[in-house]
């Protein structure tokens, strides 16, 4: 199969929308600069008229539904409009909203540029973008230029270094707050570990590991009707005839070789290391194994003569990136989505006085743990539970991803109400997402060391830690 950007864009244009939202077109890369509306448009005050925060959603797949659940379960919010290019996801979303007994939002659908009409016609306090990855930056930029005060973008926020700079430059130019919707930063154990770091339990931090180790083979392929492929349930598909993420996500494994989904792991680690706030990523080196898992999955489930067995996948099954920080720490980030394995984000936060290891749920603190014996992390995390969790445990229990989706949305809404900066801002979105482009660059150069851009333009030296320090 021809692995060119032109063929990639052509396939993705035809793919249509998956569970996350809108499909890619050949104009996606240009959308960042062709949005003509409103860098000058005045931002509207939060809660205009009835005092409720006005939300809009671009991309109405299953991830959108999770966000809607939390927006509507927190008092004082309403959904003004939704946008998607396909009727099926729109109707499912309208049916979902109707369960809350609230007015139906306006619908924008049809053209792949329909989101621009929505942004220009409606007034929002916050717009959430849950579309395929190629649309994250064009839509975020359009929303910020349209005067939306807070823009929440799903992960990863950007695919290339140029896109990372687009997010930073437009946020700075417009004053709009860009928030990367990295829910793992709000995972209860991650927040407790962050508490322990801030209270000095682990001493001076030295090293961290993290990643995204998640068997996605049954997400990258399906039978065209179900989100996950069930062996024996039907034909194996990817691209235009597939369903949900298999329409667009799998093509990244065809055309790219790097850590294409880094933020679930690096976000919590970056908070522990005060990245962009007294510390920053300085350089990166990455390597990848040979690509074997996806081809083997096709052969195992569809046979050696299946048409997809001819696809040449570029993404190495295991991608390993090492990052050096300005304050001396090292970080190892692993991407592993094509292998048979249990789920893990592989967290390890290690300092001069002890460490936390997510795999095995281990904590060791010098002078408090028995020498050379692991403690169960549960006991430590009960003691150092973050107040965002202890105060909102009951509400979070009903939300997705173990409750962290609720805590994340609560924190964002709190920032909007109080006119505070985004909890995870444009500099975080850029620095965390930049691992994708930099790892691809390093791998293409045989693992060469590449410099990490300073998206804060030197302000990291003076900026202070802010994430989850107050409600």
TrEMBL record:
The UniProt record lists the keyword ATP-binding: no
Keywords: Glycosidase, Hydrolase, NAD, Signal
Lineage: superkingdom: Bacteria
Classification via InterPro entries: Gfo/Idh/MocA-like_OxRdtase_N, Gfo/Idh/MocA_oxidrdct_glycsds, Glyco_hydro_109_C, NAD(P)-bd_dom_sf, TAT_signal
Residue ranges of domain Glycosyl hydrolase 109 C-terminal in the record: 191-376
Residue stretches making up the Gfo/Idh/MocA-like oxidoreductase N-terminal domain: 53-175
Signal peptide residues on this chain, from the entry's feature table: 1-30
Pfam family, one: GFO_IDH_MocA
Coiled coil, from the record: none
Cofactor(s) listed in the protein's UniProt record: NAD(+)
Family membership: Belongs to the Gfo/Idh/MocA family. Glycosyl hydrolase 109 subfamily.
Protein name: Gfo/Idh/MocA family oxidoreductase
